[in-house]
Write a structure and sequence with these properties.
Radius of gyration: 31 Å
Largest sheet: 2 strands, antiparallel
Distance between the termini: 70 Å
Order of helices and strands: HHHHHHHHHHHHHHHHHHHEEEEHH
Shape: elongated
Length: 413
């Protein structure tokens, strides 16, 4: 022990009892508390190690060196130490390690909201109906606790593997986010939920898919306008306008954008329709002065006088071949729902098929290639994508069949 650090390393690499005892005794004489804890444990004498850790408040060192190989009674001993010190979060963690889930949950609840995620993890491990109900009551609120953020209920259902219940909760949260104008947040939540349900091969709720579609149509408008594709941007905004009740925080700004983009795309009939809507008494006072005069002029011009309106291009339904507008996804002939391109929001076409290599959402290869020249990012999952990463699908039949199967499993929540 004339070279203590070398001795320490030797015992750590090749533990032998006598050497570990001698090093522990050396650490005691030299006042090295952490070393005492470590080498008493390596010598197989946890009682001495615990006594030192308890006396000198070095329980974190004792806990760290024990790692995942401790016995349940050792975890309990550590837990009681922390609980006695009123270190409830640390105590709860050790009770969980000792599989005393009820005690762990009780302590996490005492700590409060900052430990809810850990409480959810405990209940997910326990799979105990009584503990699940206990935490659910705590999250929803009772006589002693205020209701917590709904996102915690969503996390709890996921931890328990209740993906359909989690989807229902996610939809409630997304609706609230959307109503408050947090569109990107709502989009991300619905996207994650969609991916989880698909991964679990569970039925896709109709409302969740429709709402994700509407939100995605809205969030890609800015990209489309920046790329100069005003016609596609107008069609996406028209899709949003049909569901304007989902955007109560920004009704007038969104309808104003509809009118502007429809005018740019020469969709004059649609521009007139939504200009009239904006001139209603409940909306007119909120229209920006920048656009009010232009919108008033559109309204003054009778529909019958509008000529040269752009007609939406059509293409065959990927399932039955019936021709329909490119922005339409529901086929009136075969009743199937077509997948949409994540870049344009328009209906996918057999001869121009690709997909994001990260989230696997379909996209028109030509559109995705063009979009990546502006921003190397997937419009759906926001993962980085390069043009060279894009797959070219010559025969999308298997993917179309998978989409058909997915959409046929859609059910209402």
């Amino acid at each position: 022990l004339n070279e203590p650090q070398e001795a320490f390393q030797l015992v750590r690499e090749s533990p032998f009892v006598e050497g570990a005892v001698r090093v522990a005794q050396y650490c005691h004489k030299s006042g090295n508390v952490c070393g005492q804890v470590e080498f008493w444990l390596l010598s197989g004498r946890p009682e001495e190690a615990y006594a030192v850790a308890e006396k000198h408040d070095e329980m974190e060192t004792f806990e760290r060196i024990l790692g995942d190989n401790a016995k349940p009674e050792q975890y309990l001993t550590i837990a009681r130490y922390y609980e006695h010190k009123s270190m409830l979060s640390q105590a709860a963690r050790q009770y969980c390690n000792a599989q005393d889930y009820a005690k762990a949950l009780s302590l996490y609840k005492k700590v409060g909201e900052k430990e809810i995620d850990n409480a959810i993890e405990v209940v997910g491990k326990a799979r105990d109906d009584r503990l699940t109900q206990d935490l659910m009551t705590y999250l929803l609120g009772d006589d002693h606790h205020l209701p917590k953020d709904p996102s915690y209920v969503y996390k709890l259902q996921k931890a328990l593997g209740n993906y359909m219940q989690a989807a229902a909760t996610a939809l409630i949260i997304a609706k609230k986010d959307q109503e408050e104008g947090n569109y990107k947040q709502a989009h991300q939540l619905l996207f994650r939920t969609y991916q989880e349900l698909k991964q679990q091969k569970l039925a896709l709720p109709q409302e969740l898919w429709r709402r994700l579609l509407t939100l995605h149509s809205y969030v890609i408008v800015k990209r489309l306008v920046k790329a100069g594709d005003h016609l596609t941007a107008a069609h996406m905004l028209l899709r949003v306008a049909k569901n304007i009740f989902q955007f109560p925080a920004h009704i007038v700004p969104i309808l104003t954008s509809v009118v502007i983009e429809c005018q740019r795309a020469k969709l004059t009939n649609e521009a007139y329709t939504y200009s009239c809507m904006l001139m209603r008494p409940e909306h007119r006072p909120h229209v920006s002065e920048q656009y009010k005069k232009k919108i008033e002029n559109i309204v003054r011009k009778p529909v019958a006088d509008i000529e040269g309106a752009t007609q939406e291009s059509q293409s065959p339904c990927i399932y039955c071949g019936e021709r329909m507008g490119d922005s339409e996804l529901d086929c009136s002939n075969c009743k199937n729902i077509s997948p949409f391109c994540i870049v344009t929001g328009m209906r996918m076409q057999r001869e121009d098929w690709s997909y994001c290599p990260h989230c696997n959402f379909p996209a028109k290869h030509s559109a995705f290639t063009g979009a990546l020249q502006i921003s190397e990012q997937c419009p759906m999952c926001e993962e980085p994508v390069k043009v060279s990463d894009l797959p070219v699908v010559h025969d999308p039949s298997p993917m179309i069949a998978a989409c058909k199967s997915l959409f046929q499993s859609i059910e209402y929540l």
